[in-house]
Amino acid sequence: MTFTLGLDVGGTKIAAVVLDHNGTVVDDSVVPTDGHGISVIAQIWNLIDQKASSHALGGVGVAVPGNVDPSSGTVISAPNIRWDHVDLPTLIEPALRGSAEVSVINDANAAAWAEYRFGEQNPGDSFAMITVGTGTGTGTGIGGGFVLNGRLLNGATGAGGEIGHLTLIPDGEACSCGSKGCWERYASGSALHRAAVQAGWGPEKASHQLLESVGTRPEAEKLATTIQHLIRGMGLVAGVLDPTVIVLGGGLGTDPVFFDSEVAYYQELRITPPRSRPRLGKAHLGPLAGAIGAADLARPHARNRQCCPAASVMVNLHFGAQARQAPLGRSGVARHQRAHPGPGGGATALRRRRSTGARRRRRPNRRLPGHHALLVGFQHPPGPHAGTLQSRSQGGLLDASGAGSMRVTSHAAQQVKKCNPR
Ligand SMILES: [Zn+2]
């Protein structure tokens, strides 16, 4: 039986879950972390070693608190763990000794995917999750993740779903992002927290104390104001995305007092053009959601459904000076050629690509409009190895000289994906 490992990396802890082929959690653990750059990498290696010793891992998914380049798996920015342009797949795939592929995803998107797959009973094809933090610790703002027509929305730069900094109030309060009037300044636990502190509660548990004391008029008004701002933003989300259900997550979003109040005010939401409100739900999976989502997305069937983060890892490889341009097939679809095949995962991945190529040759061009690029040979683990990448429309090799890590354009990377939006 093959399992997948999901890791949710945060600034203070790393959650790990192992899913079996049915998507059932068979192993989970949480370890503290200091959130210091390279030491987090070492902890990820340790967790992989630990889980791989008791489960045959067929994939590893990592959720991170930051922007992830969807075509390469590179973590562009994750301030909480001090990562800046970290090529995570290349750093941790050697820990798997070629036995599994690594996919990387934003943590909020991973949590949304988990709730869509395993939390909400009737999520429909289009689903929105809005995470509302408590205003203390690391969960301070508003985050989100969306599934549209059955596929996770990653966006062009991996920032899809980052909705907390939409401008809700023009020229409103200054936000830590540098903008003004951001939604999370008015509708998250941070807003409730500030209101509670101004009312004289201590800063440690202010928002919870306010929620527990709701019933008196001043507290109720503060809560109502925060919820009304939240609903205003939810109306924008509903108007743009038209989801079947909006699920509230996060410490504040799932707080019983907050959620019950939210349900009451939600009945007033009007959407333009007029249509039914999306159903309002509460997240079910708790703090393991990100790890569960990352693990599920590392499973092959899920990669196909959400446009294959692992396929993008395929193109983020090391190329040597021997790299050369491969010829195009007669149909215009590139032929696969093995340049210098390597051991372990390289060979496995190559075989998988060959089968994909065979399918494409039977249906030339029909599912590959415009540009496409195909990887035809590589070695793993990384080193001074050879490989070629070709692009039909760009006319050949894409910067494959030298032994350093090569970044392929997202345009080319998209065409390597096994799934096709059409
Ligand atoms: Zn902001």
Task: Write a structural description.
With 422 residues, the chain is α/β, with parallel strands linked by helices. It has 3 domains: 3-106 and 290-297, Nucleotidyltransferase, domain 5 (2-Layer Sandwich), CATH 3.30.420.40; 121-283, Nucleotidyltransferase, domain 5 (2-Layer Sandwich), CATH 3.30.420.40; 317-416, no CATH class. Helices cover 34% and strands 18% of the residues. It is built from 14 helices and 15 strands. The strands form 4 sheets. It has a 5-stranded mixed sheet with strand order 3-2-1-4-8, with helices on both faces. A 5-stranded mixed sheet has the order 11-10-9-12-13, sandwiched between helices. A 3-stranded antiparallel sheet has the order 5-6-7, with no helix packed on it. Strand 2 and strand 3 (25-32) form a beta hairpin. Helix 3 (107-119) packs across helix 10 (289-297), helix 5 (189-198) packs across helix 6 (206-212) and helix 5 runs antiparallel to helix 7. The radius of gyration is 23 Å and the shape is globular. The two termini are 32 Å apart. The model is unreliable at 303-422 (pLDDT under 50). It binds zinc ion.
